[in-house]
Structures are given as structure tokens and as C-alpha cells.
Design brief:
75% of the residues lie in helices and 0% in strands. The chain has 198 residues and is mostly helical.
Length: 198
């Protein structure tokens, strides 16, 4: 894996972040429409374990499901970022993450109506917001890396910074994995406090 001249400056504009969050929101809307129109909400690949009903009955199961979902996403972003043509996949990943959030929230309202609001607010939205932020950061690094690789593939240039770039890339994803541990623990704690709402 070579990250030629990978820099933190590439793709770091606030406009880029806004676009990524808009993609997430588009995914949320698509997920909600899917849930309402098809009623299919019980597949893990769709709800991505944001839906408390399918996270298991024990605290360990909730922690495991949240962590596996986050780590799988982050590791996928890491691997895709090693490709010079990973950008379209990164965009799809943001839509996919939003899709899971939209399905999970809509499913709660479909099943329980307006009374689902406390459960959505306390058991879905905090984990969804934290996961969305981690997902955006992971995809941002994916896009930076892919863009850098594509640039050097097309234009060539000095490869002297490749080791430093690769090390920085790995470090950022390692931090995201650690943050995911904290998010999973916090999600489990919220489930412990408010599981009666489900």
C-alpha cells in the first residue's frame, strides 16, 4: 500500500463535510421510505444494528452488535481507501450508513406510532449521531487517500512521503477504531438505562 504524499489538507474543506452529511441525510430519507413502503426492517445488513429490537437481550450483545457494525464499516473504509478508484464506493458507504439509520428510526414509528419518540430519541439517535460522525471521518480519510493515489497514478511525482502518509493514514483509522469502542460502551450504557422503552 502506497500513499504518495498523503496529506491532511486534501478534501478537508467544510464544504466537503457538508456534502458528506447531506449524503447521509439522503440515505436516512431513503431508508425511511424503504421501511414504510416495504416493511422490511429485520435484516442486519439493512438496519446495521441501530434498531434496539435486534441488538440482543443482553448488554454484551448490544455492545458486540454496535462494535461489530462500527468496526466493519471503518475497516471497509480503510481498505477501500487503498484504491485509487475508491471514491464512488466511499459515497455509497455514506448513503448506506444513512439508510440504516433511516430504516431503524422509521421501524420504531411503524411498530409503535408516536409513542416510539422516547425510544428513538434515547436509544437510536445518540448512537446514530456518533456513528454518523465516525462514518463521515472514515470516508473523508478514504477519499483523501484515494484522491492522493489517483493523483500520483496520473501525474506521478515524488514518492518520498509515502511512508509518512501511510503511517498517518493507519493512525487515523486506529483512532477511529478506539472511538468506536467508546461509542459502543456508551450505547450499551444507554440501553441499560432505557431498555424499558423498547
Amino acid at each position: 500500500m502506497k500513499h504518495f504524499g498523503y496529506t491532511a489538507a486534501a478534501g478537508s474543506s467544510s464544504r466537503g463535510l457538508v456534502i458528506m452529511y447531506l449524503l447521509l441525510i439522503a440515505g436516512i430519507a431513503a431508508g425511511a421510505v424503504w421501511a414504510v413502503s416495504t416493511g422490511e426492517t429485520d435484516r442486519p445488513l439493512l438496519h446495521q444494528y441501530f434498531l434496539p429490537l435486534y441488538n440482543g437481550d443482553t448488554l454484551l450483545a448490544v455492545f458486540r452488535c454496535t462494535l461489530v457494525s462500527l468496526w466493519a464499516y471503518i475497516i471497509a473504509a480503510f481498505l477501500i481507501g487503498t484504491s485509487a478508484v475508491g471514491q464512488p464506493v466511499g459515497i455509497l458507504m455514506l448513503l448506506y450508513r444513512g439508510f440504516g439509520i433511516g430504516i431503524s428510526s422509521a421501524a420504531m414509528y411503524i411498530n409503535r406510532g408516536a409513542s416510539a419518540f422516547p425510544a428513538v430519541a434515547l436509544l437510536i439517535l445518540p448512537a446514530a449521531a456518533a456513528s454518523a460522525t465516525v462514518s463521515v471521518l472514515a470516508v473523508r480519510e478514504l477519499l483523501r487517500s484515494s484522491n492522493s493515489l489517483l493523483h500520483h497514478m496520473i501525474c506521478g511525482g515524488d514518492h518520498s512521503g509515502s511512508y509518512r502518509g501511510t503511517k498517518l493514514y493507519c493512525l487515523k483509522f486506529a483512532v477511529l477504531l478506539l472511538i468506536s469502542l467508546v461509542i459502543s460502551a456508551a450505547d450499551t450504557f444507554l440501553y441499560y438505562l432505557f431498555s424499558g422503552l423498547v
